[in-house]
Amino acid sequence: MHWTSHDIRLANRFAVLRHIITEGQVTRPEITAATGLSLATVATLVSELLELGMLAEVGQQESAGGRPRTVLAVRPRRGVLVGVDVTETYVHVELFDLNLGVLARAHRVLAPSQSRVEQVLEHVVSAVEEGIARCEVERDTVLGVGVSVPGQVDREGGVTVYAANWDWADVPMRDLISQRIRLPVYLDNPAKASTVAELWFGASRGYDDVAVLTLATGVGAGLAVGGSLYRGADNGAGEWGHTTLVLDGRPCRCGSRGCVETYVGAPGILQHIRELAPDSGLLQGSHANGNGTPAKRTPGNGTPAKSTGDQTATVAALAEALAAQDPRAGEVAAVTARHLGVAIANLVNLVNPQLVVLSGWVANRLGRYLLDEVCAVVAREALPGPHAATRIALCPIENPVTLGAATFALEGFLGNVRDWG
Amino acid sequence: MHWTSHDIRLANRFAVLRHIITEGQVTRPEITAATGLSLATVATLVSELLELGMLAEVGQQESAGGRPRTVLAVRPRRGVLVGVDVTETYVHVELFDLNLGVLARAHRVLAPSQSRVEQVLEHVVSAVEEGIARCEVERDTVLGVGVSVPGQVDREGGVTVYAANWDWADVPMRDLISQRIRLPVYLDNPAKASTVAELWFGASRGYDDVAVLTLATGVGAGLAVGGSLYRGADNGAGEWGHTTLVLDGRPCRCGSRGCVETYVGAPGILQHIRELAPDSGLLQGSHANGNGTPAKRTPGNGTPAKSTGDQTATVAALAEALAAQDPRAGEVAAVTARHLGVAIANLVNLVNPQLVVLSGWVANRLGRYLLDEVCAVVAREALPGPHAATRIALCPIENPVTLGAATFALEGFLGNVRDWG
Q1: Do A219 and A356 share a domain, yes or no?
Q2: I need a surface site. Which of A63, A190, A285, B14 has the fewest CB within 10 A?
Q3: Cβ B132 vs Cβ B142: under 8 Å
Q4: Distance CA A405, CA A86 (A)
Q5: Are B19 and B102 in a shared domain?
Q6: Are residues B335 and B313 in the same domain?
Q7: Does A48 share its domain with A146?
Q8: Which residues of B touch A346 (CB under 8 A)?
Q9: Same domain, yes or no, for B215 and B343?
Q10: Are residues B348 and B406 in the same domain?
């Protein structure tokens, strides 16, 4: 039995706050109508949030034939939430008010030689401190810091279990950060952060069963069940990028072959270009030698920064060529869409989600050009029932990882509030 | 928000009854210890079940230094539960007491010419009536009838949406049956029935996140999240048999290619024999012509009964040859285990279950010979984190589909009981 009455209380607390954040100003009956909760439950939850200072009563609204209704709104400056996106090449920090509006940003570039734990930690701490200083708030206004790190994360223990590109294993990242910045820290990975951002503020709002796909250098999925992030036995769920699509196919950095990631992640798309259009001029940087040999990627090897830079530039060049309806680029897009479509059909058949969201920087760049063909492939490959129940959409959020990380901090803060009554 | 306090109440009701059924005789403090529920909650739930006549107080147990504790047990004859397993070749009915002990059985063979809705319905009704007559109980003692039908089922509407081998679509099976037998009917498919039987009475008892794989002529999975069956957007979740393992691989009856089912379902195993050991004598019946040509299987085509009989006989011959350590049979087992292992690794990486259970008649026959090699493949193919969290086991239940169907009837009955307090 996973769920207790405390869990439901907490989920309802999230639902009420989420509705007020997204609507701006609402009355209690409006919250009741939108959430399906009883008026009594809404009244209790609103009282809690008023008591915490997270909400304010900002006015009265006439109601036809009844008493005027009190209008509620979030008190945005009651607290600051910090979202940190740690990647192989940078640390990006955003600070949010309680409406999840951005108050400040800070950024650090990680050179390829700076992947040791102490080095990454130093950048995280200095970027967070810079962000807090920019906000000009008292330190105790900061309710928490959510941190996304690549790889597998033991969330309960706050430990980075495994980060393929860095040779990190069992790094107690949460405690290392919180010892330095003396604030509550919540650790998870980008796929799960993006999923939570999607559920609160994105295309997934109001859906129960969702798959949020992160397409980047690495590829992953966040699964939501009943409107909540599904974590699996030890927070390892969602490694869709490392499911086999082509038995005995392309070698993957995980040590296996034919993984989804090797066909739809950025390095996989570069490989499609090498195979289909090596002389197209699409390959940028050191990959543009046209020799058709992929960079050797084995588990635990650091990715050279030049290679990541080349990925970004090549994907950008591909997007431009697609915008210009270049036929060579079209071939690359078609083969990418085909692999992505079959891999999504696998998810649709297994999980039967209401919504599949494409997120991550590769989806940001290429999603609009791939979406129609991906939908056509899914229509062919998925079973009729699950296919009819599923919609595929692009993620509308600009920085879902920092927003999701900050949302983890908000959820953590609300989770520590004592239940009333 | 899927879960309400009613849902939790119901899940707790299930947990208490399940513990009493599996333990036989227990006291309230023992239920409290086993379920993690509070003593007050257990007391309320036990009172409800006593009131319903489903439990009895059967004695007193001395307790060290305290008052004697009342011993509780199920009243097995308070109700009868019917489980019906409808397949392409037979209808099997089992009737259970409230301890889920088998009271009676009835069986009907379906000839290949008898796949029309009215014909199947007639067999279901007559087998259920025969079973009830054999039990010699009043009709109102029967609490409900659970029916498993192959294919996709709209559970809420009680409709068989799609049954590939029968060309059935949108058949309102639940209402057709209940109009005839005038009892509450609960409809679902074999993968989901097996999963519920596993969660209540099998290897999955006490686990939260589980995948139960049904290996038969068709292949499917039941996913459990938080100890409850996960259904997805429209009860379509679990079509693991129709996820692509080999892009552009073997043609599948679903219309796609390279589906898991075409490598690990019974017809797929027969195809391995044709490819690897056509002259081994393993192929039985009409398939034993050794010409290497698979039977044409397109969506909606009926499976000839001879072919299904051949499958059963061939899988049985393969099991015997494996028991005798026949090397040709070993090759077939190895290639089957490899495909099954990679397909399970996909599930492990995506869903991160605590337990994967192999069920269905093919697993019953071959599971013991495949398990070690399957585990070795999963160890190689799955990511280290999710792999470490997962155990793979064979289903210990003899007839999980009828037991699970009866359990749907029990869950349905308990779900209709009014909440107290």
Answers
A1: yes
A2: A63
A3: yes
A4: 11
A5: no
A6: yes
A7: no
A8: 243-244, 346
A9: yes
A10: no
- Please identify among residues 201-220 of chain A the ones whose CB lies closer than 8 Å to any CB of chain B: 208-209
Between CA B204 and CA B391 the distance in angstroms is 10
pLDDT in tens, B91-111: 999 999 999 999 999 999 988
Q: What is the mean pLDDT of residues A314-327?
A: 97
Does residue A243 belong to any structural domain of this protein? yes
* Higher pLDDT, residue A345 or A308: A345
- Report the residue from A221, A239, A353 with minimal CB separation from B386: A239
Whether A420 maps to a domain, the answer reads no
Chain A residues closer than 8 Å to B8 by CB: 3-5, 8
Which tens digits make up the pLDDT trace of B116-169? 999 999 999 999 999 999 999 999 999 999 999 988 888 888 787 777 677 788
Tokens 């400056």 belong to which residue? A77
Q: Model pTM?
A: 0.91
Q: Which percentage of chain A shows pLDDT scores above 70?
A: 92
Which residue in the set B237, B383, B386 is minimally distant from A352, CB to CB? B237
Domain assignment present for A50: yes
Kindly report the CATH number assigned to the domain that includes residue A216.
Answer: 3.30.420.40
| DSSP category for residue B346 | H
Q: How many domains does chain A have?
A: 3
Give the list of residues 6+ apart from residue A96 with CB closer than 8 angstroms, or none: A80, A81, A82, A83, A102, A103, A403, A406
Tokens representing residue B268 in the block: 């797929």
Q: Domain holding A19: CATH number?
A: 1.10.10.10
Question: How far is the C-alpha of A300 from the C-alpha of B200, rounded, in Å?
Answer: 42
Contact B352 A249 (CB under 8 A): no
Place of tokens 């869990």: A7
Lookup: tokens for A42: 């809404």
**Mean local confidence (pLDDT), B260-283:** 96
Tell me, yes or no, if A234 comes closer than 8 A to chain B by beta carbon.
yes
Domain extent for A43: 5-74
Where does residue A105 rank: exposed (0-12), middle (13-18), buried (19+ CB within 10 A)? middle
Classify burial at B84, counting beta carbons within 10 Å of its beta carbon; exposed 0-12, middle 13-18, buried 19 or more.
buried
In a domain, A421, yes or no: no
Is the ipTM higher than 0.95? The answer is: no
Q: Are residues A187 and A277 in the same domain?
A: no
With 0-12 / 13-18 / 19 or more C-beta atoms within 10 angstroms meaning exposed / middle / buried, residue B64 is: exposed
